[in-house]
Amino acid sequence: MTPTWSVRRLHVLDDAQIEGLADVLNDCVNGGASVGFMHPLTRERALAFWRRVAQGVAAGERALLVAEDAQGLCGTVQLVLDQPENQPHRADLSKMLVHRRTRRQGLGAALMRAAEATALDCGKTLLVLDAVTGGDAARLYERLGWVRVGAIPGYALMPQGGLCSTTVFYRELVG
Ligand SMILES: CC(C)(COP(=O)(O)OP(=O)(O)OC[C@H]1O[C@@H](n2cnc3c(N)ncnc32)[C@H](O)[C@@H]1OP(=O)(O)O)[C@@H](O)C(=O)NCCC(=O)NCCS
Hints:
Layout: E1 6-10, H1 15-30, H2 43-58, E2 62-69, E3 72-80, E4 90-98, H3 107-121, E5 126-132, H4 136-143, E6 147-157, E7 163-172
Parallel strand pairs: 4-5
Antiparallel strand pairs: 1-2, 2-3, 3-4, 5-7, 6-7
Helix pairs in contact: 1-2
The structure holds coenzyme A.
Residues 1, 28, 33, 35, 96-98, 103-109, 131, 136-137, 139-140, 143 line the site of coenzyme A.
């Protein structure tokens, strides 16, 4: 089946893209995803988050990938490129978000593959991320060959409250 979305890297974000990313983030938090925010996530907090990300992207500290379909932005993932001077080869993979309207069609996997290719383009050969233990995202990362390091119990709160365990993953990239 031909995908209904396309993935690209943004180097500069305009207001419409920031609004679209806030929509995706809100949808994920409303759907119960533990991605750094408590429910309810106000529009203002979501927009403030993406404005900070936009500054990091403009400064070259982050790489931002977005997916778009006919309705607008429907997915995103980031690489935190700015790392300590003794880890120039490493990046953190962060804020992998797919809108509920486009889930389970392979977009999450496509965003991960695009993020890995972007990381190599940026000279990164080691990626690290964490995800709720046993969740949809952790399953995706394992399926794509990421190596599970271990789980940290009680690491974060779910958006509606209640602690969850986080599993740390890494992936070595070969150019
Ligand atoms: C985790 C997340 C990014 C996955 O995105 P996604 O686009 O649904 O991912 P994929 O479509 O690549 O894979 C998801 C499932 O759909 C299945 N799938 C993929 N393409 C498919 C297709 N064409 N038809 C049917 N099923 C398909 C995959 O096999 C996978 O199955 P599984 O969950 O049983 O293992 C998404 O659920 C999400 O945004 N969650 C909320 C935010 C979040 O938790 N982010 C992670 C932070 S670490």
